[in-house]
Amino acid sequence: HEAHTHTPFDFPDDKREYCAPEATFSFASDMFSVGVTLFEMATGHLPDMSLARDELMSTISDLAKRELISFALHDDPSKRPTAEELLHKLTSLAPSSASGRRTWTWR
To answer: Rounded distance, CA 84 to CA 10, Å?
Structure first.
């Protein structure tokens, strides 16, 4: 899943929080950005990446969401989920309603 990795890039300052530590365009860096978005959905704020990993993740009260987000925000790009893995985990977090639709409650 890491077939196309590009060279480091200049990321806009107002979006830098969404940039993976390795600062490259890749599927893994996309998953990092998704992890930042999920963190923001779960907590209402962007992650403070200067915090130790355990301290940062402790701000997420739901264990399943914490594990999913931690997986996506992993420092090692090779240990981040693929889009398929992430979708499977997200789907497992969302209970089906009577209509068969899945809904998420993030906060």
So the answer is: 28
